[in-house]
Amino acid sequence: MKKEKTDMKDENMLTKEDLNKCYIRLSLWGETSLNFERMQGIGFCNAMIPALKKLYTTKEDLSEALKRHLQFFNTELMFGNLIFGPTIALEEEKAENPDKIPDELITSFKTGTMGPVAAIGDTIHWGTAWTLGMALIASMAAKGNMISIAIMLALFAAFEVTAYLLFRLGYKTGRMSFTKIMKSGKLDELLDSANILGMFMMGVLSSNLVSLTPKLKIGKFVLKNMLDGILPGLLPLLVVFGVYYLIKKKQVSTAKIVILLIAIGIAGSAIGLF
Fold it and tell me: Where are the domains positioned within the chain?
């Protein structure tokens, strides 16, 4: 069995060093040439160069391969390694068996998976992990806690390690990996879990970070005491729901909402309400 594994490994045209060169290029420069015509196409093509130069020895074959990857491409880059890895595996297979893998297969695989992967990555990476992580770090930093710097660096490192593992997984399992994952239904469960966790954590963070204390007092009547008697933290909760309503239902930009909140805060402070 050990001999079989060694033989299979020797059949690979690309070494671990070649793959690492490709990954580093995508990680560092995947979006540096972002443009409205091809989005991440140039960055993706640049990342493929170390592998393509090794796989295609003639100028004509290399030129055709580069053209394949200069086409429009756009996805979330961390989870996009689930596309990047299998694409390299496809190119490797095409170099070995040119008639078996047509150009259209590689192109269609990329264009067919970049949308679903973007949805997954935006939800899990940016919508949940990044947002909650940075909210926690910001709250700690605001209190002067130096550990927030270490947590931020650890968060960046965790994202990078995850991206690399996804890249290696994608390359090892080939183009069928993403299709199998999609069909298994596990991604839907993962997305639902991420959404639930995100909502839970946003509730926790909102209660700690959103503060609104009314100072209105008429005789023995204290507005804050009355509201706390109904539901502690009612006003901050209403602010959160109000902001959510403006963003989700009314499509108001966050910049306008920030200006509105500042204006309300200044006006309320001026008249002695807050």
Answer: 8-197, 210-270
